[in-house]
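Hi team, as promised in this morning's meeting, here are the two structures we talked about. I've kept the exact order from the run log so nobody has to guess. The first one is mostly here for context; it's the second one we should focus on when we meet again. Sequence first, then the predicted C-alpha cells.
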Amino acid sequence: MKTMKAIVYTEYGEPDVLKIQEVEKPYPKANEILIRVQAVSVNYGDLIARNFKNISTREFNMPLLIWILARFSFGLQKPKLKILGNTFAGEIESIGNDVKRFKIGDPVFGYTGEKMGGYAEYVCMPENSILAVKPSNMTYEEASVIPYGTIMALNLLKKVNIQKGQKMLVIGASGGIGSAVVQLAKHYFGAEVTGVCGTLRLDFVKKLGADKVIDYTKVDYLQPVEKYDVIFDILGKGSFSQCKKSLQEKGVYLLSSFKSRKLLQMLWTSIKGGKKVVCAIATPKA
C-alpha cells in the first residue's frame, strides 16, 4: 500500500486537533484523475467543519434543518470526514483509462465540495467533477482560492439579474465569496460596486475593482445617503428592516447565508411586491 501525508482530524475542536499523518494514497479508477496538490485554501466552511460539534444553531448561518442535516453528515460526536479542504490547485500525476478531457502533467484547480479531502498530498476526482485547467498567468496559490467563492458568487448574482450601471452594496466584500462578488459584479456585469469590509482589507477591496469602499468599523454603511439596486449580505448578519431604507423602490436584499425568518420574509416580499428579500443557494457546476 502506497501512502501520502495528509492533515487529519479525528475529533472536533480548535486548530490543534489537526495532525499531519500518513494515510493511504488514492488510486484513480477508469474515469478518475489523480492530482498532486500544490496549494489548498482554508475557507469558512473548513473552520465550521473542524469545530462543528461546538457550533450552536445560533452561530450557524443557515436554518435549523440544514444544521441538523450537516451534523449528521459531518458526524455527531466525532468527524466522519477525516481530511478537510475543498478548494485546491495541483498537477495531474496519473489518469484512468477512460479519461478524455485531461492529460498527465496538466495544471488544474478544482472544488471537491462536501467530500473535502484537499488537505493532502493527493486528491482523486472523477473527470466530470468541478475541475478545470489552471490559467497560465495564475499561481497555484492564487488558483486554489478561486473555485468556491466564484461558484457561489456567479450563481447568486445571476439570480437577481444584475444589470450594467446598477448600484450594488457588498457586505463582507473581502471574504472568499465577497471578493468574487466584487470582481464579477464590476468587471463582468458592469455594476457600480461599493464594498464593505474592515480597516485592514480596504486596499485589497479597492484593488479588486470596487468603486467605493466603506470601513464598517468607522461608518454606518446603511445610512440612507445612497440607494442601491442590490444589497448582497454575504453572511446574513444584517436584517431586511435595516437594509430596506437603503434599497431602490424595487431593490433586492440578497443573502447567501440566512435563517428561517429571512425565508419567510422572502415569501412575503415576493407576494407583496416592491423591495424583495432573496435567499439563494448555489448549485456547483464545472
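And here is the second protein, the one for discussion:
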Amino acid sequence: MNVRVWQLVSIFLSALVTGVFWGPWLGLSRSIKTFKPDVFLAIGHRFIRNLAPVMPLLMPAAILSIVPVLVISFHERPRTFYFTLAGFALFSIALLVTLIVEVPIDNRIKSWTVATLPQDWQQLRDRWETFHIVRTMASVAGLFLLLAGAIL
C-alpha cells in the first residue's frame, strides 16, 4: 500500500481515539467536580464498562497504523515524515498516560460504591482529570500533526 492509504487509515483511527478523549472532556470532565458521588460513580462505571473492551485495541491500532507512514515517507517525503513523527510521539504520550495513570485509577474506581468510597476519592478523581486533559490535548495536537503531514 502507498503512503496515502496508510495516512487515511492512521488519521481515521487516530480521529476515533481523539474523539473518545475529546467528547467526554468537553461534555463531562470540565464539570466533574460538581457531580455528587453517586452520579460520579454511575458515569464512571458506565464509561469504564463501555470503553474497556474497545480502547485496548483501538489505541495500539491507531499508533501502529502510523508506523508505515513513517517508513514510507522517511526518504520520499521529509515534511510528511517529520509532521507524522511528531504526531506519533504525541499519540504515544497519550497511550503512556492512559496506561500509567488513567487505567490504574479506573481499575480502582470500578470497584467503588458510594458506601466504599475511599477518603482520597476526590484527589484521585482530580488526578484522573488532570491527566485526561494531558492525553486529550496530546491526541488533539497529534491528530492535527497527522493531518498536516498528509496535507502540506
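Starting points for discussion:
The chain is about 80% helix and 0% strand.
The mean pLDDT is 96.
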